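User: I'll paste a sequence; please echo it back and then give the predicted structure.

Assistant: Echoing your sequence first, then the prediction.
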Amino acid sequence: MKPTGRPAIPEGEDPNRATILEVLKELNRSEETAANEVENGLEMQEIEERLLEFWAIREGHVELRNMLAMLNTNRMIEFDGAKKYSWVRKRNLSGVYRITTDGKEYLRSNVDSRERIM
């Protein structure tokens, strides 16, 4: 068999499902640590930075922008494009993604209790 140059997917892992869960975990974590509504959520660049070393993204199995669009279409996340100033980040935000109630429900039902974000 000819090598493809792309590392193998970890046994039993679906790269799309794993990425969905990782994105939802990061957005949930952002909500839990937000000081106020403006700080709740992550910009595209922040999500890219947090998932840079996640295996499915790093190895090119999943295109993050497409995944975010799919999650938004399915109402698991929402995008707020309003320009707001973040005192914590000390800059204007270009728009943020936030987890929705549907996203939280999916995360809760698909994450092992040992991995839950409280």
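The longest strand covers residues 77-80. The two ends are 45 Å apart (CA to CA).
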